TrEMBL record:
It comes from the Eukaryota. This is Uncharacterized protein. Keywords: Signal. It holds the Pfam family Rhamnogal_lyase. InterPro entries: Gal_mutarotase_sf_dom (IPR011013), GH-type_carb-bd (IPR014718), Polysacch_Lyase_4 (IPR051850), Rhamnogal_lyase (IPR010325). Residues 1-31 form the signal peptide.
Length: 300
């Protein structure tokens, strides 16, 4: 696969990020035998579809705008704009400069594999020297893969820094999924840390009081009174790299019980080491995975 291909290239500082996202339901769904398809919706969207899951991506940016599963039109939060549902981002700075958040929007779309059993698409952005100081000096390639018979999809990204390109700090890079906040209310990060979570709205001014740092708030007037008086702090729901294997959210509500899970096959690609806190789930029904470097607490 291309990861191996890229790694074999000498002189390049290449980082690969590999994930599997799996959606599971309690009931079996038909569709295992259907071939994988790639549909275009107008000029600005592409859908990868195996008959079980349909993932809609914007072209050429490569933002995940929709995940359709088990008859539910979108598991992501449709109140959010299309660039704020499912996306990669990175936080970088020039030496001595201030931090810049980059949503890693692609400028070029390409199909890598398209056959009966597999579709892989790529969204790339190439760095040019005139962008020095303004754009992170990396070539970016975001990949999304759909396999036949899987109740989910795979994603990874390749970041390439060529020899001679300017130095910079890459303090954090991650993938984020903001799930439908009414549907996904129960969070599970480990066997012992799982619970029903307050709503993201509960963190807003008027409903919460900021504590020592912005991430921690006291819930003073949550939508549901059961959360009143609790502290919400995303760092309570983070996990060390070596322990991140499966975690995610489960739907509560009246529909079929549904999980949105992230499966991390290995933590080798995370440069922070096994004891670095490398992921978190905030009450934003938010699945965020730091990779390589992460500015969350823990040893660097
Ligand atoms: C990124 O990390 C480096 C090294 O720890 C630090 O010097 C720099 O200030 C950080 N950048 C930001 C924007 O926080
Ligand atoms: C589809 O492409 C993948 C990747 O190139 C390959 O491994 C697989 O055998 C192909 N399947 C078919 C049915 O051609």
């Amino acid at each position: 696969m291309s990861i191996v291909e890229m790694m074999a290239k000498p002189m390049f500082w290449v980082s690969c990020i590999c994930w599997v996202l799996l959606l599971m339901v309690m009931t079996l769904v038909a569709g295992e035998g259907v071939g994988v398809q790639l549909h275009y919706r107008g000029q600005h969207y592409v859908i990868i579809d195996n008959g079980l899951v349909q993932v809609t991506l914007s072209v050429p940016e490569g933002m995940v705008t929709g995940v359709k599963y088990n008859g539910i039109d979108n598991l992501l939060e449709t109140e959010n704009t299309e660039i704020n549902r499912g996306y990669y981002d990175l936080y970088w700075n020039t030496p001595g400069g201030s931090g810049i958040l980059d949503k890693m929007k692609g400028t070029n779309f390409k199909v890598i594999v398209q056959n009966e059993t597999q579709v892989e698409v790529s969204f790339t952005r190439t760095w040019k020297s005139f962008q020095q100081g303004h754009v992170v000096p990396l070539n970016i390639d975001k990949r999304f893969v759909m396999l036949q018979g899987s109740h989910g999809f795979y994603t990874y990204s390749i970041l390439e820094h060529l020899q001679g390109w300017p130095d910079f700090n890459l303090n954090q890079t991650r993938i984020v999924f903001k799930l439908n906040k009414q549907m996904f209310r129960y969070m599970a990060i480990s066997d012992t840390r799982q619970r029903r979570m307050p709503l993201p709205d509960d963190r807003s001014t008027g409903r919460a009081q900021a504590l020592a740092f912005p991430e921690a708030v006291l819930l003073t007037d949550p939508v549901e009174p059961e959360f009143k008086g609790q502290v919400d702090d995303k760092y309570q729901y983070s996990c060390t790299n070596e322990e991140i294997k499966v975690h995610g959210w489960v739907s509560t509500g009246s529909g079929p019980s549904l999980g949105f899970w992230q499966i991390t096959p290995s933590f080798e690609f995370r440069s922070g080491g096994p004891l670095k806190a490398g992921t978190h789930l905030s009450c934003w029904s938010y699945l965020s995975f730091c990779v390589l470097q992460c500015s969350l607490h823990g040893p660097k």
